[in-house]
Amino acid sequence: MPHKKYVGSYKFLQMEKYVAFLRGINVGGHHKVPMKDLKVVFEDTGFKSVVTILNSGNILFEADQMPNESKISERLSAAFGFSIPVWVRTLKALETYSKSKPFEQVTNSNDTRLYVSFLRKKQNESLSLPWKSEDGSFIILQQIENCLFSVLDLSKSKTTKAMEIIEKFYQKDVTTRNWKTIQRIMKKASQKK
């Protein structure tokens, strides 16, 4: 149940849970962002119950309205000195994606990687899904709202360029997470209820 924030005499604002996904931080020693500093920036921006998850830029937080991605990005860029694109989703949206079981038909193995890519908006609706790479190592299964669900099979290709393929169809205004990361975020959120 979302928290309520007291404002004024009789008003309560419903606090909703959100997840921010940052692109391009802490990759290969570049664009280092310590998680404790990231948490401070989010708290200074006015968000509540801020929790960072993993080192790849996943932040669970509460706010009384849908946050502005551009404003968060500007605050982060000012704090860390380089551009940090941001995508925000409600926790409810992630739960809806999970309930839809986007990978239900996928045979999982140690070589299988399940991904969700967050798009800025619905794009490239002419792309026929499911789409499969020539070697069959990468499949874009489906698009739900502004999220793509894809599968990488490392047993078919060790040097696949899956993210480059997504950027080819959807440009660079996208960030991708392993489905296990999404499940970890939802588990952390359920522990905080």
Report what the structure shows.
It is a single chain. This protein is α+β, with helices and mostly antiparallel strands and 193 residues long. It folds into two domains: 89 residues, Alpha-Beta Plaits, CATH 3.30.70.1280; 91 residues. The strands form three sheets. A five-stranded antiparallel β-sheet has the order 8-9-10-7-11. A four-stranded antiparallel β-sheet has the order 4-5-3-6, sandwiched between helices.
Which terms summarize this structure?
about 190 residues, alpha+beta, Alpha-Beta Plaits, 2 domains, five-stranded antiparallel beta sheet, four-stranded antiparallel beta sheet
Question: What's the gist of this structure?
Answer:
With 193 residues, this protein is α+β, with helices and mostly antiparallel strands.
Instruction: Choose one word for the global shape.
Output: globular
Q: Strand count, sense and closure of the main sheet?
A: 5 strands, antiparallel
**Rounded to an integer, what's the Rg over CA atoms?**
18 Å
Order the strands across the largest sheet as they lie in space. Answer: 8-9-10-7-11
Total discrete domains? 2
Low-confidence stretches: none
- Strand percentage lies at 25-35%
Number of strands: 11
Measured distance between first and last alpha carbons: 6 Å
State the secondary-structure class: alpha+beta
Separate helix tally: 5
Q: What is the string of helix and strand elements?
A: EEEHEEHEHEEEEHEH
User: What is the multimeric organization of the chains shown?
Assistant: single chain
Helix content estimate: 25-40%
Mean pLDDT: 87
